[in-house]
Amino acid sequence: MTPGESAQAGLILKVATQLFAALGYDGTSTRQIAEAAGLNIATVNYHVGGKRELYLAVMEAAHRAEKAALEAALARLPGDDPVAAIHRVADDYLDFCVDNPEVPALWMHRWLSDASDISELERQYVLPLMAAVTEALRPAVEAGTIRAEADLEYTVWTVIWAVHGFAKGGVLDARGRRRGAGDRAALRRFRAHLHQSLHRTLGLPGDPR
Question: Which residue ranges hold the DNA-binding region (predicted)?
Fold first, then answer.
């Protein structure tokens, strides 16, 4: 692939990510992607092979980014202060979703049955990450830092649901205006709430941050 072709492929992937995140797979056409990229459909098809192949490439890139962020966060779990480390993992995940809002948007579309004919992504991408997080937390259960009866899997899912919802939709203020992750006060308040919820659900010792 020439440098020019590589640049075009990168542009197509970027534009497709934005459109799939905004409109979903079912609501996006190859023609829309081509027009937004300033290219013709033939050029898009040449680089990616079609809408399905492009969607799979977008989801793979999103997964790689999320996987790298989670692996870096989980690598910091072992340490002298496991409670602080657990809170840092939540912070890292929140920061990733705030900095990369297209990732939670892509998955939230799938929660609403978008691209329902492409069913392997959850098994291929989501389940391994869920397993990695829950297994990384088990030593804290064995050490008594996390209460034994805590449901680790559902706790992780609850964090995902909350973080994705906030990163994608934000919250409404008293005047009915939507406040999202770009609002520092809203983000600070959500972060504090996330920590309190996680702390209490897991039964962590001490006061939540």
Answer: 29-48
